[in-house]
Amino acid sequence: TPGSPGTGSALGFTGIAPTPATTDAVVVPEGFAWAPVISWGDPLFADTPAFDFDHQTPAAQREQAGYNADYVQFSQGGAGDNGAHRGLLSFNNEYTNDELMFRGVRSSADLSDEQLEIVLAAHGITITEVARRDASSPWRWVQGGRRNRRIHTDTPFAVDGPAAGSPHLRTSADPTGTRVLGTLNNCAGGETPWGTYLSGEENFNQYFRATGAPDPEGRLRRYGITSGGRGWERVRDRFSVVDEPNEVNRFGWIVEVDPEDPTSTPVKHTALGRFKHEGATVALTADGRVAAYMGDDERFDYLYKFVSANTYREGDRAHNLTLLSEGDLYVAKLNGDGAADGEYDGGGEWIPLVVDGVSQVPGYTVEEVLIWTRLAADKVGPTKMDRPEDVQPNPVNGRIYAAMTNNTARTPAQIDEANPRAANKHGHVTELTETGGDHGALTFTWRIVLVAGVPSDPQTYFNGYDKSEVSPISCPDNIAFDQAGNLWISTDGMPGTLNHCDALYIMPLEGVEKGRLQQFLSVPVGAETCGPVILGPDSVLVAVQHPGEVSGASPENVVSQFPYRGDGQPRPSVIHAYRRHGR
Ligand code: FEO
Ligand code: CA
Ligand code: CA
Ligand code: CA
Q1: Which of 44, 355, 369, 570 is deepest in the core (most CB within 10 A)?
Q2: What ipTM score was computed for the predicted complex, to two decimals?
Q3: Strands 476-481, 461-462: parallel, antiparallel or unpaired by DSSP?
Q4: What is d(CA 14, CA 30) in angstroms, rounded to the nearest whole number?
Q5: Quick one: pLDDT at residue 582?
Q6: pLDDT class for 101, splitting at 50, 70, 90?
Q7: Is residue 390 lining ligand 1, measured as CB closer than 6 Å?
Q8: By C-alpha distance, which of 141, 140, 135, 142 is closest to 579?
Q9: Alpha-carbon gap, residue 66 to 63, rounded angstroms
Q10: Region (Disordered) spans which residues (predicted)?
Q11: How far is the CA of 341 from the centre of ligand 1 (A)?
Q12: Ligand 1: distance of its center to the CA of 297 in Å?
């Protein structure tokens, strides 16, 4: 089984070969099968209409699974999980492929107002109960589950933390600066020890039209807020920065949702800063506080850590729900120790931005640090990284793993030991070890454990493993761990860099197979592999995001019919890959 290093294969399956990029299939290892758990448009409530590609409505979409799943969270044991065959599945609906959702739409500019309303409703978060027939059957969503919920662009969120109520967060619809409608471009995320769902608002800039808006401090520019292009200002004035200058400051946060309570108000936590949040993953510090690790997914942007002011209390849910409301914020600097040792490695420090409620950045108030975190961080000299995606503590070895997906803009003059390749199109994965193994430490050591690419490329590195026995990989994005602490990596971008479908890999971190990267599955043409949840050695949940997203593809010119349910159009889905039992 996976996680039995030293017993022959640690993997428990035979890795698959790379899949040519035009393949319209999910490929799983021999002995495995896969099934869709839930797809875009599947009805969540008892009276929700079934999905009908040619007769979509905003009202139906507000009650159906959203589009383009990214982060996936699975839990069991909540109220309603009566037995081993019920669970709760939550997933981000990061963005929409408008050109694949509707016939005759070649770009967002072609959307009717009603289609725009459908698009707004397809963003956000989907929560659904799931069930399976028995332990060897795949999970499937439950229409009408008690905890089922759709969070979309009109769903109210509370704002908390030091910047809540700031004049910079007030709008004509919300003069208190504490209540926001919607969450946007939710990419990765993490589960808290108290069972809530954290989600990162990532490329929110694309929804705002800022043409003609004044930008004296360069704040809009630093966040890439320019001409928009999604057309949302046509149906909601608030997406026009000229009309509603502060609305854009109300996105780019980490949000927390209590998936067990469908009536709860989700929260945007300003204490964790505002940037293009890939996600946030938490671990307890030695003294019982909560550390949250975060990446800002942009070329040359930064890694961050939040540490709560207060400590976690086992079983005290009401208290734990306040932990991300107050604490310290840091940004990472990674120093190399030189190439002579043959490793990309060194030491590092967490540079303070906010400590004990006081700004550590000259010229910036706490509110300004939290709302314009990128500009505040620029002042203190952190390391400019190659697009930090998932940053996640390994629950088995206590180390932190961070995926740098790629950065083709890095020049030879901009190379450093932590970002060692110019025109880095394949990315790398970095391991951080906090001093004393304490997630509350302010210093750490680091080393790159994977320099991605084709193994025959001398620049690549697979944690020391024999490169004749590993799989090619490019553009690491989401990461996850199995119960044995093996690293699982999903990719976003391999069609463009290797002409392969995106895929999910396992890479053991210990034992005789340390660094032996093998491919577990691949997703169909145009899709990105997201989510992964490693339920067990033979059981993995994966989000298949943007299947069929290929230049020129449309409903009249489909390149993918994933998940092959007979309706002829690609439908982003969460799938379950599992070992087939019997014959
Ligand atoms: Fe939405 Fe950074 O990937
Ligand atoms: Ca070194
Ligand atoms: Ca991502
Ligand atoms: Ca991605």
Answers
A1: 570
A2: 0.95
A3: unpaired
A4: 7
A5: 63
A6: very high
A7: no
A8: 135
A9: 9
A10: 152-176
A11: 33
A12: 6
Q: Whose CA is nearest to atom 1 of ligand 1?
A: 187
- Ligand 4 mean position, distance from CA 487 (Å): 18
3-state secondary structure of 430: strand
- Euclidean distance between CA atoms 213 and 224, whole angstroms: 13
Q: Which residues contact 566 (CB under 8 A, 6 or more apart)?
A: none
Q: 202 CB less than 6 Å from ligand 1?
A: yes
Average pLDDT, the chain: 96
How many angstroms is it from 406 CA to the middle of ligand 4?
11
Q: What is the edge-to-edge ordering of all strands in the sheet holding 528-536? A: 32-39, 573-579, 539-545, 528-536
Q: Which ligand is nearest to the CA of 475?
A: 4
Q: What is the mean pLDDT of residues 296-310?
A: 98
Burial of 349 per CB tally in 10 Å (0-12, 13-18, 19+): middle
Contacts of 260 (CB under 8 A, 6+ apart): 78, 79, 88, 147, 195
Q: Are 518 and 531 in contact (CB under 8 A)?
A: no
The alpha carbons of the chain give a radius of gyration, in whole angstroms, of 22
Tell me whether strands 197-201 and 254-257 are parallel, antiparallel or unpaired. Answer: antiparallel
Q: What angle do CA 432, 373, 336 make, to 5 degrees?
A: 30
Nearest residue to 6 (alpha-carbon basis) of 470, 511, 518: 511
Report in angstroms the alpha-carbon separations of 431 from 269, 408, 415. 27, 22, 18
The answer to whether the CB of 368 is under 6 A from ligand 1 is no
Listed residues: CB within 5 A of ion ligand 2 = 337, 341, 343, 345
Would the CB of 528 count as within 6 Å of ligand 1? Answer: no
What gap in Å lies between CA 167 and CA 28, rounded to an integer?
52
At 17-68, the pLDDT tens digits run 999 999 999 999 999 999 999 999 999 999 999 999 999 999 999 999 999 9
